[in-house]
Every structure is written in structure tokens, then in C-alpha cells.
Amino acid sequence: MDAITHMFVGASVAQLPQQVKQSQSRVSLGWKSRALIGALSAIFPDIDYLLFFWNPLEFVAYWHRAETHSLLLAPLWAWILSKLLIRFYGWHHPPILLFQICLVGILSHTLIDSLTAFGTQWFAPLSDYRVNWDLLFVVDVYFTLMALITLILIVVLRNKTYRVYSFILPLCYLLLVLLFKQQAYLQLPSPEKKEGKSSSSRVLIPQPFSPLYWHVIEPTEQGINQAYLKLANDVIAVNVSELLGVDVYQNSYYLPPQLRWHMQSLKPKDIAMQRDVNLVWQHKKFSAFRDFAEYPVFYKYQKTSTKVCVWFSDLRYHWPNIIPSFRFGMCREKEHSWQLYRLKYFSDEQVKLIN
């Protein structure tokens, strides 16, 4: 999820740890201090983004949302963060209280990130299995608003029981999204038989701007069937997408009876491209992308008089009229060997990676 949402949730859960006694007196810590520490703790796990600049492909494939997001290592990160706060910010309250606040903030980050399609490695470094519930897009304005209202209620309400009840609001929103998703599954029609027999269950991926929009992905023997579904029109989503410059966004989604299926695959239809595409996909240097992508598809083939490039992407990160996020490939200049490249976010600018 985005940093703002993490900070709101972290600031909220930071109000929960009980005050501790010290020298026969109860030490009080104001809500502002708790909110600040909780917000800082809640964004701490994303410190792994520093590794992105070392190797973006290895980062998304293996390092992001791994050890820094692990439930097993959360106490260690909370201890380190609390020690840093004591060392550099002159913390004068009981260390155990600071540790508890840091811990709940870090745990909130891990749990919220698990709601997205990317998922988190809860049990790293013992396991690289990613928990992903595919309920929220990485930026969900509705959920962020629920988190903000929850924080306000916790600050305003003095009764401890009522404070805990404040968390029902974002939980109810998640339940509503889950109901939307189940309803989408129930209303989902079958793709045409000519597209190939389904080899696994369908997957619904949350989309930007609205919980009413879903990306339907269905692997088949011939490739991957995909469609963009909407349960209903969302006026707010239309306004937000237009504000961000994403034109005709809603028109790319269809109600279940009018759903339009499209076939995607790892191989282009042009036979002349297939040799290079196969070489890149099977190349040993491209193994990290093969490990990363759950629904890999051929994205683009570029050829000039001096250079050939083959690009792939993951359907989890495809949206109508928006450039996909994770596009990696390999390029070769004349007689040189294939080299790893990526396309920058929201552009087609090529960036050479460490090979």
C-alpha cells in the first residue's frame, strides 16, 4: 500500500499499547507522540526500497516485501528501531512501551501489504511464499479514508473499548470489498470455448480507483484469457481517473453480460519474432523475471538497424490506458550478447541493468 495509508494505520494502532508503570507511577505518553512513532514504524519496512537502485529486477523478484516485511523478523526490526529512537531522539519513557509501539506499527504494514496482489513474505527468511489476498489496489482512496477516520475516532474517543471498536470501520470496508469480489465471481461468464480450456481457476485482481472494477485472469492451454470487469459504474472513479489524466478509463471495463475476453501469451503471433522471444524468455539472466511473474506475457518487440529488444510483463500489473508497472526484457546490439533492461515506470525509456 501507499505510504500515507500505512502512516494512518500505524498512527492508529500505536494508540493501543497500554501505559506501563515505572517507579510506582504510571508513565503517560500522549497520542501525538504515539502517532508519530507509529507512523514512522509503519513505513519502516519499506526501507527495502533502497535495494531497488542496486538491481530493480532482483528487487521485485526476491527482495521487496521479504525480510523487512516478515512476521518472524518483526520483533527484531522493532527492537532495532526502538534502539535507534532511544539513541538519536532521547527517548525517556520505558523502552518496553516504545518497543510495543514499533512492533504493532511494523506488523500493521505487513498485514496491509498482504491485501494487495504483490503480497508479502510472512515467513522470510525461512520461506519465500507470498501471502496475497488480492483485495486492494496498492492505492485505495476509500481504504485510506477509512484509516484516517479511524485515527480521528481513536484520538477523540477516550473509552478504551470504543477505541478498539473504531477499527471496525476499515474492517467493514474490507468485508465489503470481499463481497464485491465474490459477487464478481458469481456473475462472471465463461470465455468462448475457442480460446482454450481453462487449466486453473480464475483470478480477480483489484484495479485502480474503485472496488467495483476487477481484472479477470484465466490461464488456459493456449495462453491467458483476460478481461476487465465492472459490477457497476463508479462516478468517483471516473472523476479521479479524469483528474489524473486517464481518459475513458471506465469505458474499458464491462458489465458481466458484455464482458470482452482477450488472449495473451508468451509468444507473439509474428513468426519472425519468435526466435528472439524464446531466446530471451529462456535466457539464464532472465530467471529472476520468470520467478517474479505469476502471469507473464509477451509485451513488446523492438528492432532497429543496430538493436533488438524483447519485453515481457506480468498481467497482474496491467490496467486500461495505464502503462504497466513491471516491464523487463533483454536487448542485443548487433553481434553483442543479450543484456538485461527495464522500462521506466510510466514511460518507454530503457534502463540497462546490472548483468
UniProtKB/TrEMBL annotation:
Q: InterPro entries from the entry?
A: Transcription_regulator, YdjM-like
Q: Which UniProt keywords apply?
A: Membrane, Transmembrane, Transmembrane helix
- Keyword Zinc in the entry? The reply is no
Superkingdom, taxonomy of origin: Bacteria
What parts of the sequence cross the membrane?
Answer: 35-54, 66-86, 98-123, 135-157, 164-180
User: Which protein is depicted?
Assistant: Membrane-bound metal-dependent hydrolase
Species this protein is from: Colwellia psychrerythraea (Vibrio psychroerythus)
Supply the source organism's classification.
Bacteria, Pseudomonadati, Pseudomonadota, Gammaproteobacteria, Alteromonadales
